[in-house]
Fold:
Amino acid sequence: MGKRNDYIGWDEYFMGVALLSAQRSKDPSTQVGACIVSRDRKIVGVGYNGFPKGCDDDSFPWERDGEFLATKYPFVCHAELNAILNSISRDLSDCTIYVALFPCNECAKAIIQSGIREVVYLSDKYAATDIVQASKRMLNGSGVKLRMLVPSHKQILLDLSVEEGP
Structure:
C-alpha cells in the first residue's frame, strides 16, 4: 500500500487552523481566525476575534449597527492582533499569517510592526472599503507579500467521534 495522495498541503493546513480558531469566536455575525507560522512551518500564534481578556462577553454589545458605543467595533480585538499578542515568540520576523478575511488597516499596522512578511487570505470581500484600501497601501508599502489562497480542497472535515476499542 502506498502513501495517501489526498492529503492537504501546508497552506490548507495552516488556513484550516485559522478557520478552526475562528470557531472560538462568540461574534454572532463574523467569525475570523488567524494562524501565524514561522519560516520552518511551526505554528507560533493563533487568535480569533473577540473581546479583550477580562471583558465579559455578556456585558458588551455584539451589534453591527447603531451608535458607535452600542456596537461591537470599539471593543472587539481582531483575530490577527490576538494571534500576534498570543504568539509564543516576540520575534515574528519572516513569519506568515493565515487569515480568512483580508486584514483591516489597524491589523495591518500590527502585522507590519511585528515583522510578519506575508499575509495569506481566503476572502477580500471588503476590498472596496477605505479600511482595506489603507491596509493594502501600508502592507504593500512595507514590502509585506499578499497572497490569496485558492484551495485545492473545497472543505476539510473534522470528525471528533472516538471509536470504542474492543
In short: The mean pLDDT is 94.
